[in-house]
Amino acid sequence: MSVAKFVAANGREAMRKVREAMGPDAVVLSNRTIDGGGVEIVAMRDTDLGAVNASAPMFVPPEPPPSQVIATAPAAFAPIAVDGRSDKPEDSGLVDLRGELASMRTMLERQFAGLSNGAAGIPGTPGVAAGDPLRESLFEWLVNAGFSGQLSRTLLSRLPVGTDRPAAMSWIRQEIAKKVPVLANEDALFAQGGVLALIGPTGVGKTTTTAKLAARFVLRHGADRLALLTTDRFRIGAHEQLRIYGDILGVPVHAVKDAADLRFALSAMKDKHLVIIDTVGMSQRDRSLSDQIAMLAGVQAPMQRVLLLNGAAHGDTLNEVVHAYRHDVAGGAGGIDGCIISKLDEATHLGSVLDVVIRHRLPVFYASTGQRVPEHLELAQADTLVERAFMTPRRGSLFNDADVARRQAGSAEPAAQRQAERTGADDMLRSLTDSANAVGVCVEELNGATYGFDIARQLWQQRSAGGVALRQMAQQVRLTMCRDASRACDRYVLAIAQNVARPVQGRRAPQLMQQTLWLADRDGMPLASTVVPVGRTRQSMSEAEADAEAETVRSTLAAARIVVNLNTSLPSGNTLARWHQLGERWVAGTRKTTRVIADGLANKLDTIADTLTFHAVGDTTWRDRGAVHWLGQCIVRIPEGQVRTAARGRANAAEAGTEACLVVSRMVDCETGDTLAVEYVLCDVALAEDAAHVARWMQWTIAAEEQFRTLRHAIEHFAQEGDAAENQGASMVSVQLGLTTLRLQHTPTATAPAFLSRLAGRASARVNAPVPGTVLNEGMGRLLALLDVLENYPGRGTALAPAVDSTPEAAMQAMTAMPQLAAAGE
Q1: What global pTM score does this model have?
Q2: In what order do the strands lie in the sheet with 39-44?
Q3: Which parts of 69-164 are beta strand (E)?
């Protein structure tokens, strides 16, 4: 067995030696302070832990008296407390911090095992080991989401050894999603045809779901191939409600009262591909339920029985419903082909219905999330349902599993005594470790080569530095910018400019500013941004420095790639001439009524487009519709002054003005062949060979409007009061953090956007919803403040920007909110 002892000056250095010798998954057996102030750690390889666990008997520690527990608590923290004597953090400081916290948690879990309620374990509950706070907390997490204790214990018994909390939560989600059977293809459901009967208890939403299914079928196959039937003769207005839906869809609706009526109606509808039956709602305990099932069993046509399950119902109720409709009262005539989960918008414990679906191996066809027809009926997706089960907001459950109730109540202790013995150490330790893990994962993702977070973080740490340091920082930014442009651009670097009015302190009128965003020509990734004042006669020192910096950025990027200026409208002739003199290219959007000269004649662009030959350049999506992109182009001339005067006033009018390339894009619907949109673009003649790229670049100018708003918010959010040097440093930091946000929106990582939104307190209820740039900016400020506190950087004592609210107190407040992030899945 590979057990070794490691001695170092502090806990961090000792943990580093453990990882180097035994790997990152090594198991810490003991940790103590030795004479002279050092730390001694005894550890073993994780591969040997399995052999020890297999042969070791289960040990239940005795219940220590409260005084003894409280006395030993500080000693557990003492060996590896982070104090002012710790070495200066290096680039791997965050990784060391996470490892140290993980080892702290491992040791304290053993010492505080007796403090948690139910530490002695629950007899007969395999998978939730006594004294294992991780599995105990995961068990409560699963039960609070609505899953049964049996399924929860089964999952936890198969949890891989050595898994931390975030990885365990992700593993549990994946395992549950694998067990939820779903409908793979909607066409398979409709293609079979015959009869589709919706069954279920009263009030579960069968009539509304019938209308939703009918609408989805009509959209795919037309109204002439569908018919609707209802057997509901008890509920007032049931037939009228379905008939109204049928009139809207153009589908016939009939009511039947018994088995004879049903056979007669179906025989009269033999020409229909599909007949959907809305059955009368019956309780699972109603004696008439067997008559209804027998009536459906007498149908000669192919039939699919679909059971509607109320996502807001209790798990025991749902289990009884499935039993009744499948076995208890159905007998040999029973059977369920699948189910539809309704009322997801009302569910507080969605895990209950997923547990029943898994238990009975019942395929889920659809999920209903509201009353709107047909928008609120979604094709079931296992991972989405599982994610929704764990993300549903709840204020705590009053009706927990019996095992959980015993865990919360204890075995025989009075309530007052349990409250007195609860120190909260377990909760604090778990929150601290999960917080470090969540922050570490986010930082690791943002440190990727494409996001520029590393340079933004360096600027953040030196944002109050003097003029010499600022010049060095600016040079480093330009070098990084040149590297990014060389990696992300093929031939060109794109520039989009926008003028905005910004209020200036001490001035009555707002200052007009020009903000330029630089993009890569390959995929539109943001590379850089500059902000300079426009139209000023007197220039302050800071404005002159900003102007000079913008020119330097432009020269740096122009040296790496050819600059292409993207414009939403046609610039003036002088501007085009200046770009031509600088060796830059240009692209401008324009209207179809714009007049240019082609073949010596003045015509509108749409008239010229009718004479062009178009060719398909690829498939695309236009407003959620599949389309084919067709492209046509020709050489035209933009005249000086009025087009008609230029065309008729001189013999050489065709040679006057600026030569340009006209690019016309047509989006044609793949199914109908209808023209969805036509766009007209004028560009530099040198870009004629790149016409397809030109059309794609113009689409990016539409998204640039939102990107400019994100950058302006970053400048305002990270603003800092102070002298000119501090303002310049804050401006540089703001721009770089805004660019990191834009790159994260352009290429989202797996967890960073959701984590930053939760850190900002602005998490979205929608799964995988895009996070607004303003929310990411706020989360970025909170993240930097947390890193300042967690890593104890030397610059922590400097004055921080009040707009970011990144004081140590604010950062610690943000960190206290981290248990909510962990509960949400971080």
Answers
A1: 0.49
A2: 3-8, 39-44, 27-33
A3: none
